[in-house]
Amino acid sequence: MAPSGCAPHHWLCKGTMLAGGLLAGFSVLSFLTYGYLSWETLGSSLETTRAELGKELEASVPTTQPHIVFILADDQGFRDVGYHGSEIRTPTLDRLAAEGVKLENYYVQPMCTPSRSQFITGKYQIHTGLQHSVIRPTQPNCLPLDNVTLPQKLKEVGYSTHMVGKWHLGFYRKECMPTQRGFDSFFGSLLGSGDYYTHYKCDSPGICGYDLYENDNAAWDHDNGIYSTQMYTQKVQQILASHNPRTPIFLYIAYQAVHSPLQAPGKYFEHYRSINNINRRRYAAMLACLDEAINNVTLALKRYGYYDNSILIYSSDNGGQPMAGGSNWPLRGSKGSYWEGGIRAVGFVHSPLLKNKGSVCKELVHITDWFPTLITLAEGQIDEDIQLDGYDIWETISEGRRSPRVDILHNIDPIYTKAKNGSWAAGFGIWNTAIQSAIRVNHWKLLTGNPGYSDWVPPQSFSNAGPNRWHNERVSWMAGKTVWLFNITADPYERVDLSSKYPDIVKQLLRRLSQFNKTAVPVRYPAKDPRSNPKLNGGVWGPWFKEDEKKKKPGKIKGENKQKKNKKKTSQKKGHSLNCHLHLAGG
Q1: N or C: where does the chain have the smaller number of CB atoms within 10 Å of the terminal CB?
Q2: Cβ distance 332 to 340 under 8 Å?
Q3: Is 168 part of the annotated catalytic residue set?
Q4: What is the pTM of this model?
Q5: Marked catalytic residue, from 10, 67, 84, 112
């Protein structure tokens, strides 16, 4: 009989029933079979039983390794959290952040794939070949297979690893799937966006398919019209209920919200009827649902015995998109840009293991830092041959020490649309300022090329029924410029360009950009493959590259390493035609 109050799927119930079953099975089966037992047989059988019980007892010893829960929101704007002054209520996020450590100098990348790749590898985009845009559903592309991932490293030290939510790191080959990149289980979507209820996604007219997976197969059984934020939370609760909290777990929860399409269950609109702008109203409802979901995740951590030894990290993957309801005010720019509004994110750490709870961290932190930080906390080892761009920043967060990080390469994208007026001369012969790039060194930030959408979008922009750019603050001196310099500490809103005042600092940062660029690998941005059409795959988005095709047509699809070398020129030509609108739509 199960222990009182023990659900059949709970780890404790399983362990108790197994131990009791071993003893009962031993005595009944032995006497029925033989009618008697010799001391030798008895001794041997008892040793076997003791060994099995020993394994159970060993599993019951609490782990010293923390449970790690990483929650990644999608397209949440910098202002879109209660403690940043939003009109949208986020009581859960506010409480967790207030009880933990708020990261107020925290940076991610301006789009989905880049942030996710840097989180899971600890490397800048220039070191994985994913410098340009995002991975499109029809591209034969994924996070290069020679990159070791965070879940792979955690598995090495005994972690159970589970991912729930949005992948967006490529899937054209089976080897690219989450379960092949270190996760014991995966439940979620492979693409960058899709319908929250039907889980269908059209990449272009006629190129549509189903995008909900459980491990390596389409999750048709879960196609019950449940809103994805709630469905993913239910899955997380199931995982926590069935796992033994005395063994370490890594949960990567990558919610689809609050990325477009703007959809939410009706009850979450109740507090936001007064918002006239329909996109902002829908966005607010989505964020309210997300906040409730995170509360339910936190309750599950407590209910099933994980919380006291857990580290919960919350992060947005990039800035908000004002045309889709998001707000980054008072920061400049939006998702898809290298202005602060595109890359400075909402982030915090909540954990009973923190030493300085209830504090604010203003030290420089980047999304690549989670890789070495979490591996170290998990008592893992970082191989010497892995060239990381991230730093272990746990003491910075937990104890308030100085960050080991002094710079961030926001990116160098050599195939993004070139700035017309950019030149080597404008870059003092050090750098071609037509190239889109951005770098932060201490207090200074330098941008070159075309940094992307550059308006400041104040809250009153959302006061009307539709988008109203008349309220936006725009600048006229942008025309012709290809170099900007800001002191971000003194001017976090990027209102005063200092490039003409401090040319020597501009030169120093240009040289740093040039140094980074020498370490860059070729860009991976192949042309779309017609074989990716879901119609050829049972109506489902999923791997389409087959090993037998590789043997028959070696010239069409190369291996990971050969592709980097042979596809460089082709990739650049294909990617060069993409504009900013495509960037904003896909990630």
Answers
A1: N
A2: yes
A3: yes
A4: 0.84
A5: 112
